[in-house]
């Protein structure tokens, strides 16, 4: 659990419209959620390791990860993230447009806790994020460290 009373979500997403919709969905949700967003895996690793401009970054309770991003894609990020002993227990849920079976299998093989295909419909997208909030932030019990 994060040190603040709110849940902390790190959104790793390069598409501004999807960042906006995700933030909107959490705002309309039942819980207080602090959403921090970065645009690729390089920034996500810096955020998680509190490097550079992220030196005061909070430890997320959940990471939402897109697969298709510039510089470092989601699979490469996940592979590197899972080697970080102090952080690797943070659940990572893939949130992507890809429906490829190979992406699903690879993501789970690399340690993803879930895989969600982004709905194209805005209302369905928001409903998906709110379902994710209900499951991961209310029902699931997570390790503190």
Automatic annotation (TrEMBL):
The keyword Phosphoprotein applies. Coiled coil: none annotated. The modification 4-aspartylphosphate is found at residue 66. This is Response regulator. The lineage of its organism: Bacteria, Pseudomonadati, Pseudomonadota, Gammaproteobacteria, Oceanospirillales. InterPro entries: CheY-like_superfamily, Sig_transdc_resp-reg_receiver, TCS_response_regulator. Signal peptide: none annotated. SMART domains: REC. Keywords: Phosphoprotein. Pfam families: Response_reg. PANTHER family: RESPONSE REGULATOR RCP1 (PTHR44520:SF2), RESPONSE REGULATOR RCP1-RELATED (PTHR44520). One of its GO terms (biological process) is phosphorelay signal transduction system. It comes from Billgrantia kenyensis. Residues 8-133 form the Response regulatory domain. SUPFAM superfamilies: CheY-like. CDD domains: REC_Rcp-like (cd17557). The keyword Phosphoprotein applies.
């Amino acid at each position: 659990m994060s040190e603040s009373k709110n849940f902390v979500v790190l959104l790793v997403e390069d598409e501004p419209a999807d960042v906006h919709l995700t933030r909107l969905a959490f705002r309309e949700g039942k819980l207080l959620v602090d959403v921090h967003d970065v645009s690729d895996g390089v920034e996500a690793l810096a955020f998680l390791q509190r490097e550079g401009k992220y030196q005061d970054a909070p430890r997320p309770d959940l990471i939402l990860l897109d697969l298709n991003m510039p510089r470092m894609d989601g699979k490469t990020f996940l592979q590197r993230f899972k080697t970080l002993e102090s952080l690797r227990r943070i659940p990572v849920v893939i949130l992507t447009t890809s429906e490829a079976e190979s992406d699903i299998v690879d993501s789970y093989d690399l340690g993803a806790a879930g895989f969600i295909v982004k709905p194209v419909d805005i209302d369905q997208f928001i409903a998906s994020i709110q379902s994710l909030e209900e499951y991961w932030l209310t029902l699931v019990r997570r390790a503190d460290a």
